[in-house]
Task: structure prediction
Amino acid sequence: MAKIKLASWNVNGIRAISKRGFADWLSAEKSQIVSLQETKIDGGSLTPELSNPKGFKTHWCHAEKKGYSGTAIFSKTEPKTAWQGMGNPPFDTEGRVIGADYGDFTLLNIYYPNGKSGPERLQYKLDFYDAFLQYANTLRANGKKLVICGDFNTAHKPIDLSRPKDNEAISGFLPVERAWMDQFVASGYIDTFRLFSQDAHRYSWWSMRTAARDRNVGWRIDYFFVSDDLEKNLTGADIQAHVQGSDHCPVTLELRF
Result:
């Protein structure tokens, strides 16, 4: 049986993190597939070091707006196919969805919208959530086993953030957002980290404004989910809180086929 490790990281700007040791982390990281969110780059700005790093093939999905959003997949094994977007124009202009088919599973790397800027953006986030779930379920109906990773921009349960009571009225922990997470899980998707760990105080994002990381005042908003037909293949999931360079840290998943 083959073992495969995947990593997912919101890098908050690929050019910025490239100056903070990203290449060293990528070289040392034992993941065969690395999914990135919030790359904040356009195709014309990619350097050879980013578009063709040693040992990896890369696939990118850029936002129409320069310096905004964006996703990428770095893969040691070339997928059978790779694509950008959900085929849903209202949600495909911001570079938030990139997919790759590896045969044993289909990877969906998603940078879900943030709803904090106002009611219109919150509604966009909720509509994106619904469109994504429909898209994922359609892939499953077509026989695909799904690995879904990325920055969901929502902490699901009180254990997933350090100050749940203080954030009940803040986007990222609103009842309506958490209810969608409930619906997502009920639709047959497994939060892999919680399958292996019920530890509190394990977070993947910390506000840079308040030195929150030093105090571990954080949120777990970066996830690996899998469709329940992959549960038997799961062997581990973790959060690499020691890895610096972004306001997020990488999260990982291990599978065996």
